[in-house]
Write a structure and sequence with these properties.
By secondary structure, the protein is mostly helical. The chain folds into two domains: about 1-60; about 70-110. The chain contains two helices and no strands. The longest helix has about 55 residues, at about 1-60. The N and C termini lie far apart (about 105 Å).
Length: about 110
């Protein structure tokens, strides 16, 4: 009786060990596969990073030019302010015309 019990326990232990080893093998191969894919992705990322660094090295640096003549800079600021005022005036006249059209439309259709 005890011999059968020990045989069952032994076979059960071997089966459990086989299942654990199978699971470990599959997990290991999946890990190696994922590491291979990660290596490919890292290679692509590294190539893109090198290309971006090369492009950045080719691009000239943009630096502010504060050594220009102050009179020229003030004239440029004045010109930009005038352009802004002109745009503001044009926008205001356009809005006023739109409001007049709306008011006329509402007066006509208010009687209906």
């Amino acid at each position: 009786m005890f011999t059968v019990l020990w045989w069952v326990l032994g076979v059960g232990a071997v089966v459990v060990l086989a299942l654990v080893l199978l699971r470990l093998w599959r997990s290991g191969t999946a890990l190696l596969r994922a590491l291979g894919e990660a290596s490919v992705v890292l290679d692509r990322f590294d190539a893109a990073l090198r290309a971006a660094q090369a492009a950045r090295a080719e691009r000239p640096d943009i630096v502010p030019q504060l050594d220009d003549d102050l009179a020229d800079l003030r004239a440029e600021v004045a010109r930009l302010r005038v352009e802004r005022l002109v745009r503001r005036y044009e926008r205001r006249t356009s809005h006023e015309a739109t409001y007049r059209r709306w008011a006329a439309f509402n007066r006509v259709h208010a009687r209906d």
